Amino acid sequence: MAVLEPQLEYPFFVLGKGWSSCDPHRTAETYGLECQELKVGDVCISLSRRTDEEVKQLDQTVTLAEASELKDQEAAKAAVREELSKNMSASDGRSSEPPNRYHPYAKKIRKVSES
């Protein structure tokens, strides 16, 4: 919450109402802005300066087609993740294929040289 001491005609943008001031008639004369009367409990929107870094992050335009394509890609990735998750939870972690015959602990195949 902020405490301000503006002139009576100073306009504020109020959520759900639009422009409002304590004296809408003077606001119209001074600023040429038609507005409603500001009342106790109105929620005003305050604008603040953004840093260059914040502006760069917001300075991206995406077309509706691009946004739709990105949404489809994310949905496809989510489906793959879900399928992998199902497959991984069904497995107990053990492999169903026989061990490799060249496994270092496979004594039957390993040749032991006697020197």
TrEMBL record:
Query: What is this protein's name?
Result: Ataxin-1 and HBP1 module
Where does the record place it?
Nucleus
Its predominant location is nucleus
- What InterPro entries does its record include? ATAXIN1-like, Ataxin_AXH_dom, Ataxin_AXH_dom_sf
Source species, please? Teladorsagia circumcincta (Brown stomach worm)
Q: Where is this region: Disordered?
A: 75-115
Q: What keyword terms does UniProt attach to this protein? A: DNA-binding, Nucleus, Repressor, Transcription, Transcription regulation
Question: What SUPFAM superfamilies would the database entry show?
Answer: AXH domain (SSF102031)
Which SMART domains does the UniProt record give?
AXH
Q: Where is the composition biased (Basic residues)?
A: 104-115
- Listed GO cellular component terms? nucleus
Gene Ontology BP annotations: regulation of DNA-templated transcription
Which stretches are tagged as biased composition: Basic and acidic residues?
75-85
Pfam families documented for this protein: AXH
Q: Where is each AXH domain found?
A: 1-55
- The source's domain of life comes to Eukaryota
GO MF: DNA binding; RNA binding
